[in-house]
């Protein structure tokens, strides 16, 4: 719909009725909402705002363990390492 109303002498009835209908529709939609819906509330818009769900399931029965061990460095030399 052409709603260019720069020159009021050339406005058509179709443009006027379309613009009036859109304005009244927007006004009716605004008045249909309660005032509390328009005001910002203290609650966040989402349930967990910082929660990012994991992409894959993590195995819960695997635990990382650090224990001293001996590493062969070659030439029969041994070294202690935390693995």
Please give the radius of gyration in angstroms.
35 Å
Give the amount of beta strand, in percent: 5-15%
Estimate the mean pLDDT confidence.
75
Element order, helices and strands? HHEE
Low-confidence stretches: none
- Number of helical stretches of at least 4 residues: 2
Share in helix:
25-40%
Order of strands across the widest beta sheet? 1-2
Main sheet record: 2 strands, antiparallel
> Quick one: overall form?
rod-shaped
Could you give the count of β-strands? 2
Kindly name the structural category: alpha+beta
End-to-end Cα distance: 72 Å
Architecture blueprint of SSEs:
Elements: H1 13-32, H2 35-38, E1 68-72, E2 78-82
Antiparallel strand pairs: 1-2
Write a compact overview of the structure shown.
With 83 residues, this protein is α+β, with helices and mostly antiparallel strands. The protein is built from two helices and two strands; from the N terminus they run ααββ.
Characterise the protein shown here:
The protein has 83 residues and is of the alpha+beta class. The chain has a domain at 1-39. The chain is 29% helix and 12% strand. The protein has helices spanning 13-32, 35-38; strands at 68-72, 78-82. It has a two-stranded antiparallel ribbon with strand order 1-2. A hairpin with a 5-residue loop joins strand 1 and strand 2 (78-82). The longest helix has 20 residues, at 13-32. The model has no long low-confidence stretch (mean pLDDT 75).
């Amino acid at each position: 719909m052409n709603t260019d109303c720069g020159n009021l002498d050339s406005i058509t009835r179709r443009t006027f009725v379309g613009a009036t209908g859109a304005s009244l529709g927007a006004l009716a939609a605004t008045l249909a909402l309660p005032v509390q819906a328009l005001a910002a509330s203290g609650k966040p818009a989402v349930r967990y705002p910082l929660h990012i769900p994991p992409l894959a399931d993590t195995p819960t029965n695997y635990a990382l363990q650090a224990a001293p061990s001996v590493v062969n460095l070659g030439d029969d030399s041994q070294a202690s390492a935390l693995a």
